[in-house]
Structures are given as structure tokens and as C-alpha cells.
Amino acid sequence: MMQGWRRWARDLRDLTLALSLAGRDARVPLPAKLLAGLVLAYALSPIDLIPDAIPVLGYLDDLILVPAGIWLAVRLIPHDVWQDCRRRAREQPPRLVPSRAAGAVIVVLWLLLILAASLWFAARL
Fold first, then answer.
1. 75-111 burial string, b = 16+ CB within 10 Å, else e?
2. Do 87 and 104 fall within a single domain?
């Protein structure tokens, strides 16, 4: 059973890396790039829709939303481009140290999203 979990985790790492590569590829249409960016930001974000501290439900959003977002983004990426990104992702060595700069960017994006939503709702009142 542990082998299956390790393989699943390795596949998920390869998929997210391939999605990151596809998001920077000029051959990928803009809607696919935007969705790939949103999926990656959510997957890497310390902020979740349901906090991970809530037993079972906390991880449920990660187990459903991230794979569903990856699936949808992959459907929007041309097949040959996706295969090229998957190949390049498998060839890259795993990165073990998370980037603080990437974490800071994700937090700033969440804050901007919250600010934009607050302003939108305030304008509607």
C-alpha cells in the first residue's frame, strides 16, 4: 500500500511540475495558462477553502479540487504540448527546498483576491 502512495505522490509532483512548465509555454492558450496558474497557486497556497486543521474535511478540498483543476487544465492544453511538458517534468530532478519568494507571491495574490472581492461586495451594498 505504501508503494501505491509513493507512486501517487511522485505522479502528483510530476503533474504539478508539468502544469507549471505548460503555464510558461508559448504554445498553450491563455485560458489554460490562467487555470494552470490558479490550480498551482491553490495547491501551493498555505490558505485553503477548508482549513487543514479540521479533521478529514480539511484535506478533502485538496484531494478533490487540486486533481479536478489539474484534469481541467490538462484538457485545455494541446495534447502534444502536454506530452512534452510531462516528459520535461520527469527529466527534472525533484526540488526539495520550497521557495520563500514563491510563498510570498502566493500570499500576496490571496490578499489581493480578498481585497478585490471585498471591494466588489462593498460596491454592491
1. ebbeeebbebbbeebeeeeeeeeeeeeeeeebeeeee
2. no
If asked whether residues 82 and 110 sit together in one domain, one would say no
Residue 5 per-residue DSSP state: H
pLDDT in tens, 32-91: 999 998 888 887 777 777 777 777 777 777 778 888 888 999 999 999 999 999 999 888
pTM of the model: 0.66
What is the span of the domain harbouring residue 32?
2-94
Q: Are 68 and 13 found together in one domain? A: yes
Q: Which grid coordinates are listed for 70?
A: 489539474
56 φψ region: left (φ > 0), alpha (ψ -120 to 50), beta (else): left
Co-location of 70 and 51 in the same domain: yes
Distance between CA 77 and CA 30 in Å, rounded?
Answer: 10
Rounded alpha-carbon distances, angstroms, from residue 31 to 34, 57, 76, 78 = 5, 30, 8, 12
Residue with cell 502534444: 80
Whether residues 10 and 43 fall in one domain = yes
